[in-house]
Amino acid sequence: MVGILSGALVLVPGTAFADWPPSAGTQGNTKQTASADAGTLVSKVTYSGSVRSGGSKSAIQPVGNWTPPACWYEPRSVADFEKYVETMYEETINTPGQANYAKAAVGQFRDIYKDGEYKDYNGDKADEGNWWVAVQNPDRVDDPASWECSKLPFWVENNDDPGVDQAVTPKMLAEAAYNAIQLPGTKVTLAPEDITKVNLSTWAWLDKTQFKEVAVTAALNVAGLNIQATTTAKPVSLELEPGTGDAETYPTSSVCRINGDGSIGEPYAKGKSDETPPCGIKYLRSSGSGTFNLKATITWEIDWTGTGGAGGDLPDGTFGTTQDITVQEIQSVNR
Question: CA separation (Å) from 168 to 39, 102, 161, 172, 221?
Fold first, then answer.
């Protein structure tokens, strides 16, 4: 809490958007209720669809240097904001052993909105606007970038531009949804399965029934602002990394493109032993007493649609997993 208050003392100048509300989303008078999470400022964005669990390490990895937003600004009603500040103040000053500087900091923060620059949290203007506050992306709270939204909570009249770069928009919701997508595992089917032989072509494929588009919708409906965006990930290719330099891949680029029916590669069938697989590997040496770690990485194309017909493309993403492959010398097989 102390870190939040001290960090918030740095004001960040903003740049106005061309229009507001964003992409024809609604913003205006709303019934004021005291439904805030007491003592906390957490994002009110909700996610639905193929959403990964919190803390999961299965997040899609963007191609390039792009990253989803680490923080943004959202509106809060007068009642919600007042409850947040008063609860934080009461909990801080009444906590046994709390440092005096923490009590002083929270008191100064409270004074700004209760008896200082503003009066009683602008309660007499509750139907005319809302407070805008900084929130962190739950998946990036340990990232220093999550502190870039360091402007103190500020008042914005209904339908006015908040005037900060990171005010929430449908595109920003789409970027947050990107970070929340749960992707299917990428364990490929192999023939031979798990154990193969030196210089034997190993077929690899992914069934179309296992590999489909996935989507997440991020929505924000709070304090009169109602916007949303749906981010969709579509699989386009599979890259095989054998786990050793003593191997060949099919094709030689190691990238297997998706077929017209949505599958990747081709299942092995009896009678194809002399054929070259459209997707696969050939190991040139034994794995000895251990295994090789075959890594299968899927590349996904990402796009989004949002409130008012907004939409576009987001950077491609990748997600991969490894599986152990035992490679034996042919002459070691007992017949």
Answer: 22, 30, 11, 6, 11
pLDDT in tens, 107-117: 999 999 999 99
| Tens digit of each residue's pLDDT (9 = 90 or more) over 218-239 | 999 999 999 999 999 999 999 9
| Count of C-beta atoms within a 10 Å radius of residue 310 | 18
C-alpha span between 31 and 298 (Å, rounded):
46
Quick one: CA torsion of 15, 17, 22, 24, rounded to 10 degrees? 160
| Distance, CA of 78 to CA of 80 (rounded, Å) | 6
What pLDDT does 27 receive? 56
Cβ neighbours of residue 95 closer than 8 Å, sequence gap 6 or more: none
Report long-range pairs for 40-44 (Cβ below 8 Å, ≥24 apart): 40/84, 41/4, 41/84, 41/133, 41/134, 41/135, 42/135, 42/138, 43/72, 43/74, 43/135, 43/136, 43/137, 43/138, 44/74, 44/135, 44/220, 44/221, 44/222
What pLDDT does residue 51 have? Answer: 93
- Name the residue with higher pLDDT: 31 or 309: 309
DSSP for 67-85 reads ---SEEEEEE-HHHHHHHH
By the 8 A CB rule, do 325 and 294 touch? yes
Helix axes 100-114, 78-93, angle to 10 degrees: 160
Dist CA 87 CA 37 (whole Å): 10
Q: 294 - beta bridge partners?
A: 323
**What is the C-alpha separation between 259 and 236, in angstroms, rounded?**
9
Between 334 and 253, residue with greater pLDDT: 253
Helix (H) or strand (E) holding 294: strand 292-306
